[in-house]
Amino acid sequence: MREVAFQRCILPQCRATVGLEETAFRCPRCGSLLDVDYEWDRLSLPATMAAFEAKWAQRHSPLELSGVWRFRELLPFAADEQIVTIGEGQTLCRPSARVASYVGMSAGQVYLQYEGLNPSGSFKDNGMTAAFTHARIIGARRAACASTGNTSASLALYCAASGLMRGIIFIGSGKISYGKLSQALEHGVLTIQIAGDFDDALMRVQEVSRQLGIYLVNSINPFRLEGQKTIMYRVLEALRWQVPDWIVVPGGNLGNVSSFGKAFAELYACGLIPRKPRLAVINAAGADTLYELYQNRGLRWNGGEYDRQIVETYMAELTASQRRADTLASAIEIQRPVNLPKALRALELCGGTVAKVTDEEILDAKAQIGAGGLGCEPASAASVAGLRRLVQDGVIGRDETVVCILTGHVLKDPDATVAYHTDDRALFEAKLGRRGVRRAAFANRAVQVPNDINEIIKAIELFA
Ligand code: F0G
Fold this sequence. Notes:
globular
């Protein structure tokens, strides 16, 4: 008898299945990406999403405390005693009047899902707890990833906190912010800085993991994406199980959008939600592969028959022109997203769209989010900047309900924040100007005052 949980090729034309214990994370028959899939009709699901609220009373239990595993009936691939949790997923979803006004929407219609509250400061912990659980099931002793900084911070933290595995991270030299690099160093993983960027690092880590049999925790790992589905369950929970009209998410390696699309497709198929929200993915203009393929070259999932020639041609153009991803939003500075096919599928399942925004738009949006009371890193703010564009373009209506995902904490990248608010023109130019940022519309400059009580009082009365 087949297990209730297994891995399955994403292509409807193939559908090959693979056991839970396999770690190649590619279809053995056709080489495509894999999903974790379930025999839903052999599982017992709650009758309604609201039934999950009963777990709030059991927060003394680590599995019910976890914002991931209290939904474990919806990612049922592990027995309770196999689960590795460090209390991830204690996140907030809050309306932001300031952001609503900034993007031109009605007050009360824009919510911010703040994933910066996770133990390592980003949404990655939702996926890492699931990947570590799978790694424990199969008895892995070493785990690796390539990263723009957050996956590596999360991996490092789970290694340190669980003591189950040795961690190895691959990062592009000079490509990750200090907040994130400091986490990897502090938690004690082997940090390999390679001369190249994320796309190079991801290629190498796959090669090395294959050769040395090291467990890979990048989002090509479908167990990661199972954990990230719970971000959407918590959004629904915060909205008291009402489905919003739109979810807006930054796009890098396209794990989140893939995971969100899967979450909603499953909930819909199981009769737990009456309709699916639409998904909007926001690229940085300097790392806009999905935008280019989807909006300019018309690439669509097309029931799995997506036009591979379009992708290959574009990738060959990138190679020939030696163009590299380049954005201040270093978390999404990615040009060859590994989850592209899954993202296309999610966009089809949920009627999605793709937009792109400049670094200046990202930083202005970030300052507005911050002034409204939640601090995020640049990549996260792409969601709000993208929402503003989509409202301006009439794609999203001002009275629709929208949730923007704030993927990482403001402290992840203090350099970007300080450079935006500085009155030091040289610093501004060095960090932001060279990336095409001309002005900081919402800069909150520090005030220079002599060390003199009267001058200090004068300064306060002038400004506050
Ligand atoms: N936002 C932040 C803060 C991220 O760290 C990432 C990805 C994304 C958005 C994009 O998410 O890949 O699911 O589309 N960071 C990865 C990393 C690549 O290595 O930390 P995605």
